[in-house]
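Exercise 7b. Backbone tokens:
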């Protein structure tokens, strides 16, 4: 992602916004980033994306236990 950002003249955050299809990117910038992505053959690494986002809880959370719950 950093290579794409450097080649497109934008920040890695802008590349992330383009890859994630966020609306807050100007059309000209989006086109430039997409052109660089195609030229460099960038492919999103799903494992790295999940790692960067951190764990996600699915389902109900267990009840809290400890002195703060025994009032």
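Sequence design result:
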């Amino acid at each position: 992602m950093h290579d794409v950002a450097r080649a497109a003249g934008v920040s890695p955050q802008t590349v992330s916004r383009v890859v994630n299809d966020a609306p807050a990117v100007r059309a000209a910038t989006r086109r430039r980033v997409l052109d660089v992505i195609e030229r460099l053959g960038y492919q999103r690494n799903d494992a790295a994306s999940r790692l960067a986002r951190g764990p996600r809880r699915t389902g109900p959370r267990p009840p809290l236990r400890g002195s703060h719950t025994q009032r």
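Instructor comment: Residues 35 and 69 are 55 Å apart (CA to CA). The two ends are 50 Å apart (CA to CA).
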